[in-house]
Amino acid sequence: MNEREQQITNLSKFLSLVLRHKPATVDLVLDQNGWAAIDDLIEKANRAGIALDKELLMYIVDNNAKKRFAINAERTSIRASQGHSIDVDLGYTNLQPPELLYHGTAEKFIPSILATGLEKRTRQHVHLSKDIETAIKVGQRHGKPYVFTVLAGQMYTDKYAFFLSENGVWLTEKVPVRYLKETRN
Ligand code: HQG
After folding, report:
1. Contact between residue 165 and residue 125 where contact means Cβ atoms under 8 Å apart
2. Which of 10, 29, 50, 96 lies 20 to 30 Å from 116 when distance is taken between CA atoms?
3. Quick one: 71 and 143 in the same domain?
4. How many structural domains does the chain have?
């Protein structure tokens, strides 16, 4: 990674931190839907010694591989599209998911997951991927990856709510063990 790429990665992590988990680290306040005013965010970041301007911010939003951040229509506010630990209302509507979704985790979590099902832990939702490759990448963040197949269509029939984040991640409240299956390619 060159210096510019490292700077972009660090800033992207900073944005995830303040827009998903800890806005107070730079004195930022998010509204109830998770939005921060862009000018305010930049000013507070600068005050905390973080070099950020509007051009750089927009570059990160547009070029982020996972499209983690969304900008409002007026281009005045920014929020994270998913991944929050703080309580925000993202306003997504309940949507019928594909028949199968995937959850990438680490092998070490399998016994616990098979005991209690998938729980959202520190986040606002359990995160599910639409394909196995993405799920493997998510799981790798935690250790040796393992992918559960989630019977999402069946869950939806059984009245579990599903939401699709603006960046293509499926979200739900929890996944009981009976909807988890071994993944077969
Ligand atoms: C595990 C990234 C034991 C769960 C990704 C996961 C995603 C359990 C971990 C997004 C469990 C939580 C979210 C149980 C769940 N017993 N372990 N009963 N239930 N777990 O990071 O899904 O790069 O909060 O399997 O791409 O890994 O940040 O959730 O391993 O979309 O944009 O508890 O974060 O996106 O870990 O990742 P996380 P996640 P970003």
Report:
1. no
2. 96
3. no
4. 2
pLDDT in tens, 158-179: 999 999 999 999 999 999 999 9
What are the helix (H) ranges across the chain? 3-16, 38-47, 54-63, 110-116, 132-140, 152-157
Termini Cα distance of the chain = 33
Name the residue type at position 134. Answer: T
pTM over 0.85: yes
Low-confidence ranges of the chain (pLDDT < 70): 185
Determine contact, residues 171/84, Cβ cutoff 8 Å.
no
DSSP state letter for 153? H
Taking the centre of ligand 1 as the mean of its atom positions, its distance from the CA of residue 50, in whole angstroms, is 28
Which atom, in ligand 1's list, is nearest to the CA of 122?
24
Cβ of 119 below 6 Å from ligand 1:
yes
> 73 and 37 share a domain?
yes
The CATH number of whichever domain residue 74 belongs to comes to: 1.10.10.970
Name the E strands within 72-114: 77-80, 101-106
DSSP state of 120: -
Question: 57-68 burial by CB neighbour count: b if 16+ within 10 A, else e?
Answer: beebbeebeeeb
Amino acid, single-letter form, for residue 133: E
- The domain of 124 spans 101-182
